[in-house]
Amino acid sequence: MKTYLDFEKPLAELEGKILELEHAAEGNAVNIGDELGRLKAKADQLLRATYSKLTAWQKTQVARHPDRPHFRDYIEGLVENFMPLAGDRGFAEDKAIVGGLGRFRGRSVMVIGQEKGRSTEGRLEHNFGMARPEGYRKAVRLMRLADRFRLPVITLVDTPGAYPGIDAEARGQAEAIARSIDCCLEIKVPLVSVIVGEGGSGGALAIAVADRVLMLEHAIYSVASPEACASILWHAAAKAQDAAEALKITARDLLQIKVIDRIVPEPLGGAHRAAKACIASVGDAIEEALKALFGIEPGALREARRRKFLDIGRVGL
Questions:
Q1: How does DSSP assign 222-252, residue by residue?
Q2: Using CB atoms within 10 A as the burial measure, which of 77, 139, 204, 243 is most buried?
């Protein structure tokens, strides 16, 4: 059963009618093919019109859609022989960040990303994709391992942000995120990051300081969630829609100001409507990005990555 977002209600009604007609046509001699064709064409037209003019807040809803592909879906669709590696070798295993070795289109890689979980049980297990310090320390361990064995690193970002609990703060959440960002800048192997859903705050940036930052068409990437921003600026979470516009969180906005390097198109109606096609598109984009990085001398690769992020936001220099 499809899950429809608030702004998709007209589409939900139309597609509901199509399902009713298809059900009624089963075993019925009455020919309703013309009517079905007309309704399907109307639904397709409405879907195209709706997704051609999404607001920043509507894109936020799409990025958070429960049926959107998660980290595990990308692993199953793109990475062969995936071997998860657990633990930060200091405190514990954090299941919000998952990482491990595998083969991506014939090449050994290290893959790291946030997993939100799909069922209630899974969401609780993975803490809704919000990592604690040990999650970022695990990411650092895996990136250093990849650097040691000259394996390219792929990161898939999908988190509302780092876990803000007291226990996480007590164990050095900010320091762990900073160390992870520093590690991204330090390693000498190709690093490609894809914002596949929510890219929230430092929790996302911790594994997204990459040579190439790709972003799905309807994903979001911001310093804070629209709700958090609205609460801080206006003391009213209801202002989240205004905050979403002000934050410039969409892929188009971020490409324009050079925070990301490429937008990966999503299937019509969002990644949740055609997950396999979306995963394949992400795989093609990653492969293209990696090919452009192979052959660059390690020291030059690291220096270019550092320069890329130092230059963001510089005007007239």
A1: ESS-HHHHHHHHHS-GGGHHHHHHHHT-BHH
A2: 139
